[in-house]
């Protein structure tokens, strides 16, 4: 747990600095790649009592998860129209909550049916889907609309 907290405290301002200077879809690609790696690594841990392995795995997961949270909010803040930003924030929160609840239920079912690593592998897969999608947007030059816009 300590590694997770340290990772988020150290990485959050660094990632914020990065996403202020690059295209937000490229930042999404980076964030979701880090989250995919973090979930995959922690899902591969055989012995959760092996402190050095768990510290490393939770550090990587912390970096990936805080990156995902930050880029979600950055994209929302940039793309939501100012005149309807409040309503959009409400929908953003509801959809996020439904996603968390769904992932929790499905992760619990997979934990029971497959084993302790299954929820982490599931989340790695979900994040990887976004990596593929954002990579496709970048490669097809469709990420241009997400350029930094500090006027909002």
Give me the secondary-structure topology.
Layout: H1 2-19, H2 24-43, H3 51-79, H4 85-113, H5 118-139
Helix pairs in contact: 1-3, 2-3, 2-5, 4-5
Provide an overview of this structure.
With 152 residues, the protein is mainly alpha-helical. Helices cover 78% and strands 0% of the residues. It contains five helices and no strands. The protein has helices at residues 2-19, 24-43, 51-79, 85-113, 118-139. The radius of gyration is 17 Å and the shape is globular.
Class derived from helix and strand content: mainly alpha
**Based on DSSP secondary structure assignment, what is the total number of beta strands?**
0
Mean pLDDT: 89
Q: Return residue spans where pLDDT drops below 50 for at least 5 consecutive residues.
A: none
Helix content: over 70%
Order of helices and strands: HHHHH
The oligomerization state is single chain
H/I helix tally: 5
Rg, Cα atoms, Å: 17 Å
Distance between the termini: 36 Å
Strand content: under 5%
Shape field: globular
Main beta-sheet strand count, sense and barrel state: none
Main attributes?
5 helices; 152 residues
Provide a concise account of the structure shown.
With 152 residues, this protein is an all-alpha fold.
